[in-house]
Every structure is written in structure tokens, then in C-alpha cells.
Specification:
Layout (H helix, E strand, L loop, with lengths): L9 E4 L5 H12 L3 E4 L4 H11 L2 E2 L7 H14 L5 E4 L13 H29 L2 E6 L12 H21 L4 E6 L7 H6 L5 H12 L7 H14 L3 E2 L4 H11 L1 H19 L1
Parallel strand pairs: 1-2, 1-4, 2-3, 4-5, 5-6, 6-7
Length: 271
């Protein structure tokens, strides 16, 4: 896997009305890239796109038709797509009580949206010998997410798919990076996990904010672009994440017992 110079490149970013996605768009534009942004929140997306000077394609990031529309808009305005940032995500505080519909939504947005975008773009990148796929996963995809089964499982899936893409296509001109942060100051952290998850949502949010510093979206975006230009796969803006992963791998049982104790502590605080 090589590196990519961003000047003049064409990028698509999902989940870009705010948070990490909007910060990525701003950082890419500052680096000289040309950008298409997408989000389910059409009004907020339009405001963001106008403010930063990007082309907006509203819609569901997991929809094949919307993904195709993003690519068509990028090609119409700028040319072939060079980078795709699969950044849209959903999270809640559901455990075993999560409905099949909640599971389908999480799987669609957090995993299958990545698969569908890669299916459309990667063959062309292989033919051209150049392209970059960036998956916004989570530290939950390397560890777990206390309080949310749907988020933990689907973010593991996002990491696994990014790894598979890198292994399968990394020596054929396709770069892959996987972003795995802990707390970032976004709508999801501030309210997304708590809005539908009750106590589970509050515990999930507390688990993230209590584990380390909550970073600004632009700080994370700058690290993502540095990883792309340097050819780095795993992006962990919170340095502690790699140490947590090391401890998990070294003694899985001890790690689980430690997480159980942390959960008990958080649940006590949430009451």
C-alpha cells in the first residue's frame, strides 16, 4: 500500500453534515482536494456544503442508489473519484432488547454501506492502479462498546472489512485506512446513543467519555489525512487505544473481567 497526494484529488465523504465528516471535508478542501459531501440530514448538509464550498448529495449512505448518485455527481463536477470516506454511522444504547430493525439499520449503515461503496469503486481503482478507501469505524471495533450490542458488533464488522480490503487490494494500487477513535465531540456522542437507548445509552456515552479525552473533529480529521498521505492503515487518535488492544490480546479473560468492573462502575454512576 502506497501513499496519496491530496492536491487535485476527488473525494466523497458520507455523514458529512457535521462532526468528523464535515471536518474531513474542510481539511480536504484546505489540502487542495475537490469534495462531494453526503448526509441523511438534507438541510444541515446543504448549509455545510454552502459554507465550505462542496457539492452536496443528500441521502442514505447505505443505499446503492445514493452511493451511485454521489459517484455520478463527483464525476460530473470534478472527474473520477480518488478517495471515498465511509464516515456515516449510527449508534444507540440497545442491548439484547435491540429489535431486528435496529440491527438491520446498524448493519446497513455501519458495515454494508462500506461494502456497497467499495463494490462500486474498487474495481475501477484496481484498473487505474490508484484509489483510497477510508473507513470510519471506532475503538469499539477493536475493543467493545459497553451499553450497545449493535454498535460494538457492527463496528467490529467495519474494521474486519477494512482489513480484508487492505489485504486483498493493498498491493494492487488501492489504499485503505481505518479510523478507530474513542470520544470525539459529535452529535452521536452528545445525544445519539442516549436518545433511544435509555440507561444503556447513558452508560455507552459515559464509557466513551470516561475512557479518555474527547477530541475535536478537526483534530481527528487532520490525523486521518496524515495517515492517507503516509500510507497508514490503522488510525488511533487516542494513544491509549493501542495499549488497550495489546492488553486484550495478551490476556482476554483478564480484559473481560476488567471491562465488567468498568461497566459496574458506570452503571452505578448512571443511577
Amino acid at each position: 500500500m502506497g501513499t496519496m497526494e491530496l492536491t487535485g484529488k476527488v473525494a466523497i465523504i458520507t455523514g458529512a453534515a457535521g462532526g468528523i465528516g464535515a471536518a474531513l471535508a474542510e481539511a480536504l478542501l484546505a489540502a487542495g482536494a475537490r469534495v462531494v459531501v453526503s448526509d441523511l440530514d438534507e438541510a444541515r448538509l446543504a448549509e455545510t456544503a454552502e459554507r465550505i464550498g462542496a457539492v452536496a448529495v443528500p441521502g442514505d449512505a447505505s443505499s446503492e442508489a445514493v452511493i451511485s448518485a454521489m459517484v455520478a455527481a463527483a464525476e460530473e463536477h470534478y472527474g473520477p473519484v480518488d478517495l471515498f470516506f465511509a464516515n456515516a454511522g449510527v449508534g444507540d444504547g440497545s442491548g439484547l432488547a435491540a429489535t431486528d430493525e435496529q440491527w438491520r439499520t446498524a448493519l446497513d449503515v455501519n458495515v454494508l454501506a462500506h461494502v456497497r461503496a467499495a463494490r462500486l469503486l474498487v474495481p475501477g481503482w484496481v484498473e487505474r492502479g490508484s484509489g483510497w478507501f477510508v473507513s470510519t469505524a471506532s475503538a469499539a471495533g477493536l475493543l467493545t462498546q459497553i451499553g450497545s450490542a449493535t454498535y460494538s458488533v457492527t463496528k467490529h464488522g467495519a474494521v474486519a472489512f477494512a482489513e480484508w480490503l487492505a489485504v486483498t487490494y493493498g498491493d494492487r494500487g488501492v489504499g485503505v485506512s481505518c479510523l478507530c477513535p474513542m470520544g470525539v465531540d459529535t452529535d452521536m456522542l452528545r445525544g445519539g446513543m442516549t436518545s433511544s437507548g435509555g440507561e444503556g445509552g447513558r452508560v455507552a456515552a459515559a464509557a466513551v467519555t470516561g475512557a479518555g479525552e474527547v477530541l475535536a473533529p478537526r483534530d481527528v480529521a487532520d490525523q486521518v489525512l496524515a495517515a492517507v498521505t503516509e500510507g497508514t492503515f490503522l488510525i488511533t487518535p487516542h494513544a491509549d487505544v493501542r495499549e488497550f488492544v495489546r492488553r486484550k490480546a495478551a490476556d482476554h479473560d483478564r480484559w473481560i473481567h476488567g471491562m465488567q468492573r468498568y461497566q459496574q462502575h458506570l452503571m452505578g454512576d448512571a443511577r
